Amino acid sequence: MTGSAEQNVVVVGGGFGGFQVAKELSKKLDPKRYNLILINSRSYAISLPAIVRLVVDPQSKLEETSFVKLDRLYPSGNGETKVGIVSSIEAKPGVPGGTVVLASGERITYAALVLATGSKWTGPCAIPENEVDVLPFVSAWRKKFSDAKHVVIVGGGAVGIELAGEVKDLYPTKKVTIVHGGNQLINNTYGNSLRKGMEKRLRARGVQFLFNEYIDDIPEEGVVGVTTRSGKRIEDADLVVSARGGRPNSDYVSSLGEDALNGSGYVKIQPTLQLLNHPSIFAVGDVMEWAEQKQAAKLRWHVPVAVANVLGFLDGVTLTKKYAGAPEMIVITNGKNGGMGYFAFFGGFSLGDWFAWLTKSRDFMVSHFRKDLGY
User: pTM of the prediction?
Assistant: First the structure.
């Protein structure tokens, strides 16, 4: 450990939520009292929005820019990034402090703990936790997309739409079909202007759709053809890609007891972002239970609450900062040059290709991501 203080503040997860919390705590924690430790499965953070282009397009070279080391994160010098995977948490309900246990067997005590482990994904977005496996995984998916004659994408949410756009950018004549369980793309959190607008844009590029259909099992590699739940057969599908939504990366939290997670695996929290029975444990981002769409953009509301309340908890004061939700908004790309944005303000409105290009499509904001991490 680089710090010499007797107590630790630990952040689990080095994605958008975890690194932002760690960066802010580094500025505000007294290094004489607390060591700050960020635990992440890799030595670098990954710009998750860029994965849809990373795994399709070798020309993007995003493996050179969207993987950013976590070694310049601590502006005050108070902070350490530890590569490891937390397998369990040892803590007693109502008793401050505890211990995180890593898969390696290492144990790290904490005075305060922040859970920011995000979501687990399937298909090409399921980037391996082990660093040595990441580049082979990316290369394998690039070859799959290149070799395929008919790409069938399972899931018409943001990930599925964006993957389709990336495939059409690189391979304009390749057959692409999106299979989606709803009768429109995405979900009804967002207005019809966005849902119909993205469908129209993709249809113009030759993308086909099967709505109100499900593919329950992804075929093994090399199998050609797939059948939907209703029995519809897609004979020539030679690459079936899971783009289903993520699920909370929270298995390790179950060690706190069955009341720590809800039935879907989300971490139960209070508006202070503290766990219900563990006041020294906080959660931010996709892993926390809250009735909202899971997006990195929400972190601009999560992080200030978590940071203020961690500091307040350590100082022994009553926590007054509370999370009250965040407005729904989204930008969905359609390849490098288009897409749409939707904002729930003023009854809801959408913006078109120019806005999506300006804010996301051209580079997935990787330069901003790098800057946030000190690069």
Answer: 0.96
